[in-house]
Design brief:
Strand content: 5-15%
Radius of gyration: 21 Å
Number of helices: 14
Shape: globular
Structural class: alpha/beta
Helix content: 40-55%
Distance between the termini: 11 Å
CATH superfamily: Alpha/Beta hydrolase fold, catalytic domain
InterPro entries: AB_hydrolase_1, AB_hydrolase_fold, Epox_hydrolase-like, Epoxide_hydro_N, Epoxide_hydrolase
Number of domains: 1
Family: Belongs to the peptidase S33 family.
Oligomer: single chain
Protein name: Pimeloyl-ACP methyl ester carboxylesterase
Pfam families: Abhydrolase_1, EHN
Order of helices and strands: HHHEEEHEHEHEHHHHHEHEHH
CATH class: Alpha Beta
GO molecular function, one term: epoxide hydrolase activity
């Protein structure tokens, strides 16, 4: 698990966006041509002009990027090049007797910024009411092609190719013989690919979503439902849950899979277009029982949007979907389970998936009896009422406690 003090050779990195990029963004925002958007007060058709317009006006005149940049630069961060692409990552050493090195992977459309609330409690448990024996060295990369891990020097990146890059980051750049990994959404796929191919180097895994490698390998790769219709005998509650699941997750997968670059031309040139596309995911995927505006303050939203904008990361991040099809994952071995290292899970009930689940017990049972359970070496499963799809950000306390619990069994 030790590392050879290699990090001392790393050059610290600070986020520092050129002023001309911010001026150009402000200029574009002030020239926005807003859409009439008739009869969309309830956002039946998607993000409404009524919701977007004040946000865009604040982004153009009021939002203080430099203050947010200062916040993002609070923690030690670095940037290296691995396999022809830059990798930006936060790296904070643990305060405790034997910190476990832990790489934490976000999904789409998140940056490392969604995972920053995990740093303090995981690196310094004693300062957050915990036991110093539960400390971690925390490494939070922006996945290549996302946010500050840009511009990529190659167009073929996907989750299993990113896993190779992360493994080199942890073993060759940071010098760890063994390490742990955690992830949610697309980052869960990266975590699973690591757990499959590099099991000998992995202490353990922790997930916010149960996603084994091989996702998007089905014939209808653009269709999250795989052509399934809602059963005719579905209860009204299940029908509503399935309809909500479809309206929440299906549209972006189909477009990203079938028209990634076509969409990107618009989003890469129009900050309001890009914001609308991102914001629809953040609003729809977050806790369905929560207050979005309270849980996702506008400064946080616009910080994330600015990170995508100034780095022109929207296109390279979207391409990850189709690249999972164009360059399909191939198993390295046929051992079972397909992801061998011990794994823990944190499920939040405010997510739209799985439909028809309303209690902690039902959520755990849905996993234990579900199609992905046999892919993992499960040692710890927890579910929590608070939070939706953005596990690390929406309920960092639950995720932190569950990660500690998982690795207590493995230290």
């Amino acid at each position: 698990m030790s590392n050879n003090n290699k990090p001392s050779a790393l050059e610290p990195y600070k986020i520092d966006v050129p002023q001309e990029a911010l001026d150009d963004l402000k200029d574009r925002l002030k020239k926005t041509r807003f859409f009439d958007d008739l009869d969309n007060e309830e956002e039946y058709y998607g993000i409404s002009t009524a919701y977007l317009k004040p946000l865009v006006e604040y982004w153009a005149d009021g939002f203080d990027w430099r203050a947010q940049e200062k916040r993002l630069n609070t923690y030690d961060q670095y940037r290296v090049e691995i396999d022809g692409t830059p990798v930006h990552f936060y790296y904070v050493r643990g305060k405790g007797p034997n910190p476990v090195p832990l790489a934490i992977h976000s999904g789409w459309p998140w940056s490392s910024g969604f995972s920053l609330p995990l740093i303090g409690p995981l690196t310094d448990p004693a300062a957050h009411g915990g036991d110093p024996a539960d400390s971690f060295d925390v490494i939070i990369p922006d996945l290549p092609g996302f946010a500050w891990s840009t511009p990529v020097g190659r167009g073929d990146l996907n989750y299993w190719k990113i896993a190779d890059i992360i493994h080199k980051l942890m073993t060759e750049v940071l010098g760890y013989e063994k390490y742990a990994a955690a992830g949610s959404d697309y980052g869960a796929l990266v975590t699973s690919a690591l757990g499959h191919k590099y099991a000998d180097s992995i202490i353990g895994l922790h997930y916010g979503h149960d996603m084994p490698p091989g996702q998007f390998a089905n014939e209808r790769f653009w269709d999250l439902t795989d052509g399934a219709k809602i059963p005719e005998d579905a209860t009204p509650e299940l029908r509503a849950g399935l309809e909500n699941l479809i309206s929440t997750y299906v549209s972006h997968v189909a477009v990203h899979m079938l028209d990634a670059s076509t969409l990107t031309h618009g989003l890469n040139d129009s900050p309001i277009g890009m914001l609308a596309w991102l914001l629809r995911r953040w609003k729809k995927w977050s806790d369905k029982r929560g207050d979005f505006d309270e849980n996702f303050p506008r400064d946080f939203i616009l910080t994330e949007a600015t990170a995508f904008w100034v780095n022109q990361a929207i296109g390279s991040s979207i391409r990850m979907y189709r690249n999972a099809v164009r360059y399909p994952w191939v198993p390295s071995h046929n051992r079972r389970p397909v992801v061998e290292p011990p794994a823990g899970f944190t499920f939040l009930l405010g997510d739209a998936y799985p439909p028809g689940v309303n209690t902690v017990e039902e959520r755990i049972a849905a996993f234990e009896n579900g199609p992905t359970r046999s892919s993992f070496n499960v040692i710890n499963v927890n579910a929590h009422m608070k939070g939706g799809h953005f596990v690390h950000y929406e309920n960092p306390q639950a995720f932190t406690n569950d990660v500690r619990e998982t690795f207590r069994k493995l230290r």
